[in-house]
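Iron-sulfur cluster assembly protein: structure, please.
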Amino acid sequence: MMRQQDEVYAKLAAVYDPELDEPVTDMGFIEGVRIDGPEVTVYFRLPTYWCSPNFAFIMAEDIRNRIMELPWVNDVRIQLKDHCASDEINEGVSKGKSFFESFPSMSNGGLDEIRHTFRVKTYKSRQERILRHFIQSGLSHTAILNLTVAELSNYPGLEQDTHSLIEGYFAVRSEFGHTLKPGDTAFVRYDGQLIQPEDFSNYLLEIRRTRMSMEFNSNYCRGLLQTRYGEPGKENETEVIKQ
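Here you go.
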């Protein structure tokens, strides 16, 4: 049973708040998990009653999809609590409905466009963290822009945290269809265009604003969640596990 619980939480840790680029587990959004044979129920919560239904739906849908990847799971039910659209989201996601099917009066299509917008922000934010590291370490702008994928991956003296940032950056870079061949330029814009040296300073300001906005929103949401439910993580200990 503990192995199944660990597997479920490993999948949950791979689900990110699309706006914040933070795992839902780190944000304290997961209240508990119930495992009943091949059926899994996930109880989760958000910082406010009025968090955007489309953001909430994306997270609920991703939770269901990730856990359904486990070979022993044949059904995942979502129980979002204390939210203005709990009923629609819980029923829609648990039954595999789309956002449009669940909210026909609020949507003129799917969530692909909003997912793309958030992935662009994630790309910029993750890239900025790495660029900032190299700038602070004294590497010149020209040297940074000339780094290849292989050189970035094997750059000497990097801490594990920086390697983790690079892995996260490469992961989202691959989502945009950019290859990771050893000789490829390590830092390009999300659309694949090269960053020109004369534009680098302005580009850094742009992606810095994106990163700071996401960090501000992340801290703001943590504060709201703590105000609403108390100490983060405390509720996670009350999960109900049943054979």
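Notes: DSSP finds nine helices and five strands in the chain.
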